[in-house]
Amino acid sequence: MPRTFPLAIGAGVLSALIFALFLTGSPLALAVSPFTMLPLLLIGMSSSLLVSGLAATAGVLVIGLIGGSLSWAALYAAAEAVPALGLSRLALRKRTGPSGRPQFTASGPLFTAAVLYMAALFLVLYVALLGREGGMLGLIGEKIGLSLADLVQQRGSNADLAAFAASAAYVVPGFSGAWWLIIVLANLTVAQSLLTRWGCNLRPALELGRMLQPRWLVGLLALVVILGLAAEGDLGFIGATLAMILVVPYFFVGMVCLHLLCRGWAPGPFVLIGVYLLLFLRGWPALIAAILGLAEQWLKLRDRIGGSRPV
């Protein structure tokens, strides 16, 4: 047996155990669960398709055994194993460039693939829940209502609960998808940093700070924004959710530009702290960052403000 096989199985088991913290309801899950994909990416970005697939399969099997149901295994596969396997293989894909040197998948197309995967996953789940009363919105609203039932009995009314649950259900899928994409980006960064330090990296740096998105993604984003604003009911919900997912790359680029603007400026660190506090407490700076990221695609702001240096 190749020595990479035990490492792959161990990575899959470790990833599954981190994911399984959700089943326990442990507070530790909030701190550790964002790194569920990291062991799979470490194996996937440093080995072959066979070894990567073994790690992903081991994780799915372990979660199925721990959770005791196929639903937990399917959730883990959709949220962690499949995207980790796909992104790691895409990251290692290479072709011969004009100079005769191998060129690997750039960070922009790589992250675009993650964005499109999350958008497709949302649509698949939405269609799968159409047969349920209320569909996806009804299911999420019901879960929110159940989680807040005790609090509402003490301080509010059922009408207040229903209104809040309906409003929250409208944004939960989009926010969850956006948060998942940010976690994926963080895991890709950490994985390549560790592999480079360990001498196991198989590709050049991702250079996420230089990420460029395809122009057609802007058109797709514009379409779903219009759908979310103009349509009502389920169509508006679909448009709004897809807009929250598709805007994430531009939000990231906008934040890179903001970091570049603040670099070398004495009050810069305090400005960044204020921005992140507002992002956490209010959320509206995310829209400004996204607009800045969209403008950067044409104005080349990173080149103008020193984007050739790493952020």
Short description:
With 311 residues, the chain is mostly helical. Helices cover 76% and strands 2% of the residues.
Model description:
By secondary structure, the chain is mainly α. The protein has 3 domains: 1-92; 101-245, no CATH class; 247-311, no CATH class. Helix content is 76%, strand content 2%. The protein has helices spanning 4-24, 28-32, 38-44, 49-67, 70-92, 107-128, 135-155, 158-198, 215-230, 233-246, 248-262, 268-281, 285-299, 301-304; strands at 94-96, 102-104. Strands 1-2 form a two-stranded antiparallel ribbon. Strand 1 and strand 2 (102-104) form a beta hairpin. Helix 1 (4-24) packs parallel to helix 4. It is globular. 33% of the residues are buried. The mean pLDDT is 87.
Number of strands: 2
Give the distance, in angstroms, between the N- and C-terminal Cα atoms.
42 Å
Structural class: mainly alpha
**Sheet with the most strands, sense and barrel status:** 2 strands, antiparallel
Look at the structure and give the mean pLDDT. 87
Helix and strand arrangement:
Blueprint: H1 4-24, H2 28-32, H3 38-44, H4 49-67, H5 70-92, E1 94-96, E2 102-104, H6 107-128, H7 135-155, H8 158-198, H9 215-230, H10 233-246, H11 248-262, H12 268-281, H13 285-299, H14 301-304
Antiparallel strand pairs: 1-2
Name the descriptors.
two-stranded antiparallel ribbon; 311 residues; mainly alpha
